[in-house]
Design a protein that fits this description.
single chain, Quinone Oxidoreductase, Chain A, domain 1, 2 domains, 7-stranded mixed β-sheet, globular, transmembrane, oxidoreductase, metal-binding, Threonine dehydrogenase-like Zn-dependent dehydrogenase
């Protein structure tokens, strides 16, 4: 039996193990991920903050088709692909949550995901007939000009672009990003590139090391505020009209939105929740709003988005509330193209690139030991190279 390396969770610890390599059945596909990133949702799963059952997490990264089952069409061995991890019409497929994820050298994708179109081609496959004499494959320009590390940003970039599109359906001139993790900083960079000086951008950080790093690394045009100073800043330094993007962990989403809405009052026009919302969590400021349902309503990122509207307590102006779980294939492709054009602007977020053995150690440091600073630098994006 063939085996491959995988980063497998065991309680609150991950380990590098050799696991059986699957053979695809009818309609199934096996892929070989190139590089895979550790995202905020993965961290929550590994810390036990979520009850997702998959022993192998990971859903962000490009891959190659390694094997196809009987009846699979339009996918060839060697073809470069990405997987849309969220299927709007199939809750049984959530890559890295209830289906084994990408932190392994081979990942089996079920026939239901293949049929639903969750596998998205991003370039022509490597044809054995085009292999050069020295054994090096000829690769199409579509494939060659996107680094695999940058490929781990495709899905979060697509999410951020959708969130900003939702928020700016309202006329706003100031964006407040709640959370200085990968999503929050990515949102700030995208907003700066998209809107320029017409949009003031404030990022509220919960970690001093990350805030200091962001001030040094991300350049001008962004206001970085420690959460201990956020009250004063939001009350006095944020212009009207403004929008809030909630980009923290699910256990802080409702609280952070409530705090911001209370401070911003009638200057607030729109809120978008990227961070998860636990079922049953209720807002004290938007008491009639089911935040989890409002976010779930945009699973797969429909356009135009489904919008909820409510006047916050103590204010007179209605706020448009949106959120989303996952994005469409077209949005993934658009994000891929954005990274091809402007990858250098986003590459600075890839702070740690390591092989699988070191990756396991860093995952345990981040998730089990809850350390954010590694080798003197805060981890903004950990990228694990599955070929090392």
């Amino acid at each position: 039996m063939q085996r491959h390396r995988a980063i497998v969770r065991r309680g609150d610890t991950c380990a590098l193990q050799h696991v059986p390599t699957p053979t695809p059945g009818p309609g199934e596909v096996v892929i070989a991920a190139e590089m895979v990133s550790l995202c905020g949702t993965d961290i929550q799963i590994l810390r036990g903050m979520r009850d997702d059952p998959s022993p192998i997490v990971g859903h962000e990264g490009l891959a190659r088709v390694a094997a196809v089952g009987e009846g699979v069409e339009n996918l060839a061995i060697g073809q470069r692909v990405m997987v849309n991890p969220t299927a709007p019409d199939d809750p049984s497929f959530l890559l890295g949550h209830n289906v084994e994820g990408l932190f392994q050298e081979r990942t089996l994708l079920p026939a239901s995901a293949v049929t639903a179109g969750q596998i998205v081609s991003v370039g022509a496959h490597r044809d054995p007939k085009t292999t050069t004499g020295n054994g090096t494959d000829t690769v199409s320009s579509t494939e060659a000009d996107l680094d695999a590390g940058l490929g781990t940003l495709v899905e979060p970039l697509a999410v951020v672009r959708y969130a900003l599109a939702c928020l700016t359906r309202q006329q706003v001139t100031h964006l407040v990003v709640l959370g200085g993790g990968l999503i929050g900083l990515l949102a700030a960079l995208v907003a700066r590139r998209t809107f320029g000086p017409a949009m003031s951008i404030t990022v509220v950080h919960h970690n001093d090391d990350v805030r200091a790093w962001a001030q040094r690394a991300l350049g001008p045009g962004l206001h970085h505020v420690d959460d201990r100073d956020a009250d004063t800043h939001l009350q006095h330094a944020v212009d009207a009209p403004c929008a809030v993007l909630a980009a923290g962990y699910r256990d802080a989403t409702v609280t952070s939105i409530d705090t911001a809405a209370t401070l911003l009052r009638d200057r607030l026009r729109a809120v978008h929740a990227v961070g998860g919302v636990a079922a049953g969590d209720r807002s004290a400021v938007f008491p009639s709003l089911d935040l989890a349902a409002a976010r779930a309503a945009n699973t797969g990122a429909p356009w135009p988005p489904r919008v909820s509207e409510e006047i916050p307590k103590g204010a007179a102006t209605p706020v448009h509330f949106t959120g989303n779980r996952g994005v469409s294939n077209d949005m993934l492709q658009a994000a891929f193209d954005e990274l091809r054009r402007h990858g250098a602007d986003y590459a600075r977020l890839l702070t740690h690139r390591v092989g699988m053995a070191e990756g396991v150690a860093l995952i345990n440091t981040i998730c089990r030991d809850k350390q954010r600073v590694v080798n003197g630098s805060p981890v903004i994006r950990l990228v694990v190279d599955l070929h090392r």
